Amino acid sequence: MIYHLLILFHNVDKKVILFESNLGRNYSGNPRFIYEEMVARGLDQVYQCYYILEDVTTKLPGNVKKVKRISLLYFYLFAKAGFWVSDTRMPTYLRKRKKTVYIQTWHGTPLKKLALDMLQVTMEGEKGLEDYKRKFAQNTKTWDYLLSQNSYSTKIFRRAFGFNKEILEIGYPRNDILFHKNNTEAINTIKQKLGLPLDKKIILYAPTWRDNEHYGHLKYRFSSGVDFSYLKEKLSSEYIIVVKAHYLVGEQLDVSEYFGFLYQYNASYDIAELYLVSDLLVTDYSSVMFDYSLLRRPMIFYTYDLEQYKDTLRGFYFDFIAEAPGPIAITNEQLVSDILEYDFDKYQDKYNAFAEKYNDADCGVASKKVVELILSHGGI
Known about the structure:
This protein is α/β, with parallel strands linked by helices. It has helices spanning 2-9, 29-40, 72-80, 129-140, 151-160, 176-180, 184-194, 228-235, 272-277, 288-292, 306-313, 320-323, 332-340, 348-358, 366-376; strands spanning 13-20, 48-53, 64-68, 81-86, 101-104, 145-148, 166-169, 201-205, 239-244, 262-265, 280-283, 299-302, 328-329. It is 34% helix and 16% strand. The strands form 2 sheets. The protein has a 7-stranded parallel sheet with strand order 3-2-1-4-5-6-7, sandwiched between helices.
C-alpha cells in the first residue's frame, strides 16, 4: 500500500539507479560488476547509485548509498528509480513503472530446468507448479532487458521465461574479472588478502542447493555428501579446500576440526575471486561450471545424488553425463582418486566441445556494454 501511494506522488528519475544482488544477501555477481564499471568511469558521481542490502554495514566502493531491504527508503527508491539492475526476480509487491528501465542480469547458464519448463516444484513457499509458473510469467513481463551468457541460454530463456523483449547475448559482467585478473600477480594478491597459503594447491568446492531441503524462509541446508575428514587425510599434504555454498544456503559448516585445510566463505563473498585462486573446481549441477570453464582449469563433478536430482528434483536440459568436461564421482573414494589422478588430456576433447557451446559470448567486456546501455537511455 505504501509503495503504491509513493508511485502516485513521485516521478521517475533517470539519474537514480538501484542495484541488488541475490535478494540483497550480498554485494556480488553481475550487478556488482556493472556498478564497479560505473565507478571506474566516474559515473557514480553523476548518477545516484543505491545498493539494496540486508546488511548495510557491507563495505562498497565509490559514491553509493546502501539501502536496507524492505525499509521505507527501499520502497521510496523503487517508486522513483529510473533503472533497476538485479540478478534475481523482484518481489511481486513492487510494480515497475513504464519509464523505469529494468535490466535483469540473471545469474547463470541453465543445466537444471527453469521456470515455465519445470515439471514440478518443491521450493519453499510455493503453492504448486501452476501458481509458481503464473507468478514467474508475470514477473518476467516487467523485465526490459535480459542478459545471456551464450546462444544456448538465449534459446532456453526465450521459452522458459516467456520473454519476448531484448536479450543481450554479451556474456556476464561477473566474468569480466576472469579475463582481466587471470595472472600470477593478481592471483597471489587475492590469496594474500584471503589468508590462503601460497604453497598449496587450492580446490574450490561449490555445490548448488537442493530445492527440497529447505528450512525457514528461503533458506536451504548445506547438502554435499562430502566426507571432509577423509579428504583431509588423503589430500592435505598437497591441497587445501575452499568451500563456497550457494547464496540460498543458510547453514554454515563447522570447520574447526579442519583448521588449515578447509576454508569457508559465506554468501557475502563473491565467488569470482575464488575461481581465480583455485587450481581445480569440484561442483555438482551448479552453473559455476559454465563460468569456471572460461579459465580452462580442471573440473570434477561430485554427484552423489545424481539420479534423484535429475529425475525427481529438477530435470536437465542436456545429457550432463555425456557433456561434463571432467570425471563424475559418486563416492568420496572416487572423488579423491579423480583429484589425485586427474589427466587434463583425457578430457581435452570434451572440454573443447563444452567451451565451444557455452563460452561463445563472454569476452571480458560485458560490464562496459551494460553501462553503455544505461547511458543510451539518458539521465545525463
